[in-house]
What we know:
The protein is α/β, with parallel strands linked by helices. It is about 45% helix and about 25% strand. A hairpin with a 2-residue loop joins strand 1 and strand 2. Helix 1 crosses helix 3, helix 1 packs across helix 4 and helix 2 packs across helix 3. About 30% of the residues are buried.
Amino acid sequence: MDFGQIEAFIQVATHNSFSRAAEVLQLTQPSITARIQALERELGEELFERGGRGVRLTDAGHVFRPYVERLLQTLQEGRFAVDEVRNAQLGSLRLGSAITISTYVLPGILHTFCQRHPGVDVVIRSGRSEQVLNMLLADEVQVGLVRSLANAEVETTHLYDDEIVLVAYPEHPFAAPDACPTVAEAAAQPIVLFDRGSSYYGLIHNFFRQAGVIPNVAMELDSLEATKRMVEQGLGIALVPLVTIERELAAGILVRVNLANAEPIKRPISLIYRRNRKRSRTVQAFVDALAEIFASPIPVA
Length: 301
């Protein structure tokens, strides 16, 4: 079994056509046919069913395909590793990030990282934490920044706690310096909620539920930025991640409200990466930057 046979197999499987595979690989169709036949002889099974309307994988072909795809992914990672050995400042970083992290936290992280490694090509994929986990498991990204998740195939390293705080507009009674409302008093105010599908939504509802009160929900939005704008306009108060309102607090257009007898609402944020997999130099450089920024010791792969 050689690489030419593997390439021919994956191209025929992708395009369901020997002729199209030949075009992609810039070979003749008889060459593709010969490679597939040699591979089938070696495996002792037919991999394709040939018909007048094209070809399709046999049961054996379907079973064989994921192993071939993993092999090609490993070879691609090997090429990346060789490139990095050639020049430690070059390489690529495929990073997955939860949406809030990528918007409010990741820019500062990448500012530090890219200053040190200006030649690295950074590709960022955003989504909910569960989506980022699936990207990692599918090898679409090399590392992820998410709320803490448990998975047997993934190592998780805590980076920081994402604190959820109550905010109001400056003229609201809760914004007075000596104000310290209870959770029940806050729940009675018009409350703006955001992103029903996110973990924040459940976290906020659970906060009021544990206090034994029902929040007076004035409106629900699908955007955190829109939620902040509604609060600025005096349409309600909101519980939002502290990292998302640093500019508004500094500018005085939002005010953080301390609640009486309320435990802080915190959500752990973590770095995730595949278990028992050697990290490339570029990925290790990113991990090292995170360890320095958040003072979190991260084991070497």
